[in-house]
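check this:
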Amino acid sequence: MASTSIPVAGSTERQETLRAALVAAVLGTVLVFLAGFAQPQLLHNAAHDARHSLSFPCH
């Protein structure tokens, strides 16, 4: 009886999932620290500019 080996796709899917989770965790950490250490006026101006770029009235 000959044995056949079937490639396991779950291994690569798991690696891709872990890679995506790692990228999301790093991006989230960077965003939290940037927002945590930014000056309040800088955050206000960034939100204000984002509202204007989306044509959302804020005044």
